[in-house]
């Protein structure tokens, strides 16, 4: 069934090129930097039949059920955990995402955080800005020969693996829906989580936040890891239990964390 879309609201600092593309296809588009409350967004959406969000705006059941003109929700990114998909489906609202849109950016950012952890770059930068020049305190270590554990072997996880292999890292990983044979095509040794934890020098997570992944890295899993393991999360806040991470950092069980996302 064809859906006719005439007017779309673009939120969360969506790139202006989205507005251009929509308008070139005869759809009126409005870019807004406003951070709407649920009530304010319901009021705003009365004159739109489509909305595009990134990860900041939550499209809840309340918003969907009180926006009778809404026909489509676009997610500029991969995960749709900030959209109540079940409610949208019940109300005949289409939910679309762009799974390949940020793959390279997310993979490169993951690698950048890994390099920062290996070479203590943020701490060294802060030290120099504080008027000190203490090179020996921030020597760090090579990534060459280290083992990178990847949880989630989708597009981003595999792209991160390919890039870190160029540093000479061994890549191992887990994904419940990716076979050993498929992982091997990206030179990743597929393992169960319990097999993987003790081998990792670095761990990076690339999964959606769902009940099965919430708190995946917790006190129990940190205890199974090498002492000093470093972790990176460019996926979703909540995959790593933040309180458990703090305890692991304070005890030295975790040697560092590169986080681009948080629970709140």
TrEMBL record:
All copies of domain D-isomer specific 2-hydroxyacid dehydrogenase NAD-binding, residue ranges: 112-262
UniProt key word S-adenosyl-L-methionine: no
SUPFAM superfamilies given in the database record: Formate/glycerate dehydrogenase catalytic domain-like, NAD(P)-binding Rossmann-fold domains
Gene Ontology molecular function, alphabetical: NAD binding; phosphoglycerate dehydrogenase activity
Keywords: NAD, Oxidoreductase
Pfam families per the UniProt record, alphabetical: 2-Hacid_dh_C
Keyword Oxidoreductase appears in the UniProt entry: yes
Domain of life: Eukaryota
Family of the protein in this entry: Belongs to the D-isomer specific 2-hydroxyacid dehydrogenase family.
Protein name: D-3-phosphoglycerate dehydrogenase
